[in-house]
Amino acid sequence: MPLKEKSLIERIRRAATLHGQNASRGIGDDCAVLPLPRGHEALVTTDFSLEDVHFRREWHPPDSVGHRCLARGLSDIAAMGGIPRAAFLSLALPAELPQSWVDKFVAGLLKLAAQFSVSLAGGDTAQSPAGILADIVVLGSVPAGQAILRSGAQSGDFLYVTGTLGSAVAALNQLRAGKKLRPRSHPKHFYPEPRVAVGQFLREKNLVSAMVDISDGLSTDLGHICEESGTGAVVYAEALPAASGKDGLTLALHGGDEYELLFTARPERRIPKQIAGVPISRIGEILSGQQMRLATADGKTQPLKPAGWEHFG
To answer: Does the structural domain 5-143 have CATH classification 1.10.357.140?
Structure first.
């Protein structure tokens, strides 16, 4: 059983302090007091992590659940070219949950937070009637007027993606099939790395016209860029950095569970082949009109429909 609320909050506060965070910035008061650098605008994002939707206790160790919980928010900040500043965690926990599970969850979250110099500045706790619910809010900042939006793509822009695609959802499919996995052997699924440094580089060098993270799948999130920008796109199947294995192309296009960045840039912009140690692949082009297409190796094209993750879909 988790500790009573006051004791639980104090335990999380002590854990944050042990990770070198300044707990006086918010935990213990009604609100956090957080400064923003002069000339910056705030970025705010929120994401749920729900038991049996985003994770399962029998599949995911608690430190992985904590890591993934924060990674979701950090990836959103990365997609705007932002600098993460602070996180707020609200936890609803079932009464039968061992306190040791909560401790390991918090440790996984704080380890990733320390990697990006993010403070855990507050949150809330409650008892859940069924299942674990974690809601993460991440505050970031970006120089005024420089946030990278989804709506800036133009016809003729080149389309790029970071990293490799498909291995995270491939691991998830193995779990669904009943296979036991060693989490550290499948980091893309269990311990994804938000591309914060890549997003900041692209924004600082003014290289990008539009950007999105592809946690819901490339086809779905490319659809968001096209919808917001009023454009279409073509994706070259052979250019996709798909993980090897069965159904590699399908998983790369639609798999989701990735925390890579999909972005567009004008043709005259010179995009490095690697940024912050992460490979960058040119995978397509933005087109006029509002249709997405997939170009195959034989030179033919076919409609590319969004088929990634969608709640209630």
So the answer is: no
Rounded distance, CA 60 to CA 18, Å? Answer: 24
Q: Which CATH architecture has domain 150-303?
A: Alpha-Beta Complex (3.90)
- CA distance linking residue 237 with residue 252, whole number of Å: 10
Look-up of token digits 């639980």: 8
What value does the mean pLDDT take over residues 173-195?
96
User: What are the pLDDT digits (tens) for 10-35?
Assistant: 887 777 776 655 544 557 777 888 88
Q: Is the pLDDT of residue 136 over 80?
A: yes
Helical H runs in the chain? Answer: 5-18, 62-79, 99-115, 167-176, 187-190, 196-204, 218-229, 248-254
Residues 6+ apart with CB under 8 A from 66: 104, 105, 106, 107, 108, 109, 110, 112, 134
Q: Provide CB contacts within 8 A for 102, sequence distance 6+.
A: 2, 8, 62, 91, 93
Residue type, 4: K
| pLDDT value of residue 109 | 97
Structural domain spans, the chain: 5-143, 150-303
